[in-house]
Amino acid sequence: MFGLGGGAVAASALLAACNGVQDSSGAAGGAFPQTPPWRFVFINHVTTNSFFVPTRTGMADAAKLLGIQAPQWTGSTEGNVAEMANAFATAINSNADGIAVSLTDSNAFVDLTKQALAKGIPVVAYNANAANNYALTYVGQDLYHSGFLMGQRIARDITSGDILVGISQPGGNNVQPRLNGIVDALKQHAPAVNVISINTGAEQAAELNAITAAYDGHPGVQGIYAVDAGSTASIAQLLTSRGQQGKVHAGGYDTLADTLKGIDSGALDFTIDQSSYLQGFLSTMYLYLFRISGTLVFPPSTDTGLVFVTKENVGPYVSADSKFEGGSKNELVPMPQSIPLPSPNQ
Asked: Which of 17, 69, 139, 175 lies at a C-alpha separation of 20 to 30 Å from 239?
């Protein structure tokens, strides 16, 4: 299955407008006027998680393109909301020129967002959103919708019995909507399937142990899935180490190296790509354009996409090893001779 999110269109439009960059003194390049040395700050919930390597690459690429300093990357290493809030407050008090925050909590960042906006500091949400917050926009996947589509995909393979679903931060706005979507889809399409959610924790290094313990503790499960990057990679590692490729249905999210290997080997049926890169690139671009236009270019809400990566289309992900998906190569990725039609409802 091939899909294009709105972010792909937004990115191409923005790039078309960028005919040059500023030099180190802030002198304008292309069509952009001279700007101060703006400093943007990204507040993240798991700063060392490998999922966000492409996000940070996207931030740096956008900053270089625009001729501004690379945004600061801060927050918490393990989903600690208080640590994130402290980092947010520090960014406000130090007069950051723009803030991007992953709104993993529905309440902790509301007043901070108000404070930032009251000081003239634009705030955008990325990766996770909160309905009662005042961020100018959201750059990221439609999380509930992606979970619902994942539930429909699971129902194609499993119609009854227990399945395990790993979740790194139960209740977190970055992952809970996906689990909710899976459950709702299965209620409609495979009501005899019972979802057993497994708290795998926000620390990526511990997720394999949590997934392994859950799998060993629930013999006879019909499938094992996850709604976050680390848990998905752990499922691939577990099933590969035990020679279970193709013997149990499995899938999840994102494009970590172990996940892609798992797709290629048959350990995973699918993974869902949400474009971590665009979440960093577009958030930086939107903060810049909002400031440079004096608020006239208001940042649009941007769905960074949903692509089911399967055995049929994983090849380019593996062979390219591209920075756009967290790989090591910074080089042109060849275009295919033909492009698959996207789903008509996307």
From this structure: 175
